[in-house]
Amino acid sequence: MQVFGAKITLWPVLLLTGVLVSSSAIAVNQSKVHFHGSIVASACGLSPEPTAQLVQLGQQPTHLFKVKGDRSPAVPFNIKLIHCHTKIASQAALTFALNKDETGHLFNVKGGATGVGVRILHHGVPLNNGDVATKNSIVEGNNMALFSAAFEANVDPAIVPITSGTADAWVLLRVNYL
After folding, report:
1. Which of 18, 40, 97, 108 has a Cα at 20 to 30 A from 7?
2. What does the buried/exposed string (b/e) look like for 39-72 if buried means 16 or more CB atoms within 10 Å of the residue's CB?
3. Distance (Å, rounded) from C-alpha 70 to C-alpha 147?
4. CA dihedral 137, 176, 119, 107 (to 10 degrees)
């Protein structure tokens, strides 16, 4: 190749440019990875699944709630205690508390729906907000406590109608070891 009458050999320049282009074309991906947990001085740990559970109660029609106390179908969920050591404690008392609705017995919902709260049940028996849900003897290793939850009318729908909308609630789970 000639440029303005001079003969120039470009292959070393092209080769060097190619190497530079290929080197800079290799992208480096990076991202932060966050870890969350805690070390506890207790007889058991909580499985990672129940520490931030989302129980899907579904879309329930307002006509299910004809009188105060009517419930939607219950949805099961569980609490798993892991790595239990019975020399530290022999029982676990589980309590669901806080975020009380206007009755004080249910868990308050936010998001637009009115006239309902969330009820937690243990083996079909309704639990009030803040009551000890169950005292279970723990065994060495892993233990499971089974519960269910449902929407429940906390007003008399004949007087105060149930209104539709999102119905999100939260509860605090406490595990005391005995």
Report:
1. 18
2. eeebbbbbbeebeeeeeebeebeeebbeebebbb
3. 18
4. 180
**Contact predicate 171/98, CB 8 Å:** yes
Rounded to the nearest angstrom, the gap between the alpha carbon of residue 82 and the centroid of all alpha carbons in its chain is: 18
pLDDT tens across 25-37, in order? 677 778 778 677 7
What's the predicted TM-score (pTM) here? 0.78
Instruction: With residue 24 as reference, give the H or E element that holds it.
Output: helix 11-25
Tokens 């609490």, residue located:
79
Q: What is the pLDDT of residue 5?
A: 42
Report CA-CA distances (Å) from 146 to 12, 121, 123.
73, 9, 7
**Closest Cα partner for 129 from 95, 157, 105?**
105
